[in-house]
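S.,

Sequence below, as promised.
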Amino acid sequence: MNYKSLTLLAICIVSWTLSLLAQKASVKYETIQLAPQYTPVQLATIHTNDSIIMHDIVTPMVDSAVKAGLIPDWLWIGRCIEAKKYSAYYADKNVARAKIFYNWGKDWPAFATAIVYFTNKYEDKSKAELMSKNAKMVLDYSINPAELKSAANWVKDTDKSTHDALLAKAAK
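The prediction came back faster than expected:
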């Protein structure tokens, strides 16, 4: 094993220990966004797990990579999440969210790609304001026609001006 792998493994072990302590944290129900396919209890569990994963696994690993002058190893971070007995769903969702934050202000095309991926897979499409906000970020930062068209679909019935601007940019 190289130094990078050992460092990430150590972070995994430490974050696992911390996650055991964090599991006793209370859930703030007012922050949960209801989605039709989940009950309030399921959403509370998802929200709690996402918070623990981001706080105890993802953030320390990303911070460690940044401090070492490295790009985070997203695949390894996902594997660490799954190694802590979380599902592939949690690994993918939290790594996707971390890519958004990591790329903000550093790599705008990668940021836009991360927004598109996360929005397509995990955002509640019934939230028009959120879909419009995400679509506008894709409009501002993406040059990929497929991403622009995908974002246009999010707002086709709710934000005509953004929809038209996305399709116009995709056609260039």
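Helices lie at 3-22, 40-67, 74-83, 88-103, 108-122, 128-141, 145-154, 160-171.

Coffee later?
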